[in-house]
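Input/output pair, single chain:
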Amino acid sequence: MSGGQGPGWFELAGIGVVSGLCVAAGVGGGYWIGTRVDVGVLPTFVGLAIGLAAATAYAVYKIRSYL
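Output:
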């Protein structure tokens, strides 16, 4: 839908929830791998970066249809 009408609050809340889940899954997965392999906190930060990238990509994908 293009032409001035932006996303509603429900869609924006959905983007926030999915973004939070992406970051949480990235950090959680990185932490889990870090404890299993015993390499420190590096996998946690890599997971954070992957989660942030996924959250950003999803938000851009959803918002782009309104531009």
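The longest helix spans residues 9-37. The helical segments are 9-37, 42-64.
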